[in-house]
């Protein structure tokens, strides 16, 4: 099968986008990150669990307790209060890397040392100095509170870049490492020797808490984040390698303490898959990073001011059995983070979010198999748009492309709500590029062919046919195809006599008005005007556009034409012009439709016996005095939408097979009660007629004529009189043979 150039262009663009997806350039990466933010914002706020709260270093606390950093005795008081209130875990999103500044403590120690050196120390004085020293040693007080609490997790931070480490000396780095060494992961398993070299987040330096605090705390975890390409924080490493050890974040250490469960993980050759804490399996990417499922803007988690906690303004049950994360939220002192919901987001709430994600297993995962969904969306979307374009024109294709994009957006968002993150930009970009690429190609290449077709045939064929020829130029080839269609024939009654009364100019003017009005109605119902033969209109319904309800459309168009002509007659009468009446014949059946003629001159038309029958029915109106006649096949296909009167069973000239014919009266439900009674009476008379009960039949028809003029009733009365004199016999089938076209 030979592909069109436009199809090849669409497929080339699709495979180019697939290659770009696999290469993942910076611009696509940036757009995908922003689309993820938009999905968070579209989803809206989620309510977290009740296990995690924030002990906030807020403006209120600064006003009452003094400027930050506070003396360590305030931290000690906080730990004591949280312990008293039953907090299960107390985690600090802060690092105490330097001893507390207390000039008075240094003077006391110097004075005491000088007394001891000179042997001038009074035991009572030394005892008092020891007491003052203890009260002034806030680091020791803080350490004592940490040790007594047995539920604290201190924070520290890693440097993930080799630059900017000049201020850290070897001694400080070694001491900091010693302070965190005991907090590393113990249950680490590697699939093989190759797995040991799997890429994980690596740190180049660490700054930890001072030794006295590190030794007193129950545990410690890093609170460092690694920003995405655009500077936002969407992922957190659950494992960081440093000096041949693997270290956990503050959130994992807090959960480990809260659940009293061990943490373990297995590293295959291709990288991390998950971290296990108790029975909870935490999904990660290859580098061991968790995609954070943010719940909302700041203050999504409960915040309690530290000054309120210390001064017993918080009910005890608010903190009982909670994971309390101590962190700054006051403007100017807290670490501002960019997140999907907010540009200024307190880092302490990120830790709370991670803890809640894990605790309630509300994960947002981007597994490796999600790439199959991404690639399938790109490929299927591109192929669909490409081949739709091969069958449709620019604007319908735009509609299909838009629907395909909407479906993909819905499906992608549906997966997101289920916790699965898939790419959205690459598939949508592919749809846009395929549509734009093929459209541009058509504008510069196929546009010339379209203009030729419209210019050559626009004056002779309906706009629908023209659009079909533009979309499918192959239709211009000679030949046709067999289809079930509805043929339409109409002719002006007594046109020869009318034309004799009018000048050529008047006749042309009248015909132009008539033909324009009638043609517009045919077009309205998507019929195809075949040709005009003087006052006659030949058209058909169901081709070139396939229409399942072509018989209904043809009937409704015929009724609307008769109605519009009635309005025109009233107008012409007021203007003193000639009035026109039209006879219509419809038949539904198999016929050949297509381009007929020669290679140099052709006509898109219909041919066949079913076409001829429609023409004969139009002429049969003249005999019965009716204006719209349809065959039984048309009536059976359109009976749901029209009201009819069964006229007769006839045999037309040139056709041996008889056909039942109906007068088309109005749309379904449009009959006046009196008219409906007359039709019922006519059908009774027709039944008597077929049963050869001539007197009863004539009585029915005569009753109709007494109330209104009805040509078919008059015809049947005359037939009954003749057949009563000369009965047709028992083999009579009731068929009437017409002798004129």
What key phrases describe this protein's structure?
single chain, alpha/beta, 9-stranded mixed beta sheet, 25 helices, 27 strands, elongated
| Average pLDDT rating | 86
| Distance from first to last alpha carbon | 49 Å
| Protein structure class | alpha/beta
Whole-angstrom Rg: 45 Å
Tell me which oligomeric state these chains represent. single chain
Poorly predicted parts: none
The share of residues in extended strands comes to 15-25%
Q: How many E strands? A: 27
Q: How many helical elements?
A: 25
User: How helix-rich are the residues, as a percent range?
Assistant: 40-55%
Dominant shape: elongated
The biggest beta sheet reads: 9 strands, mixed
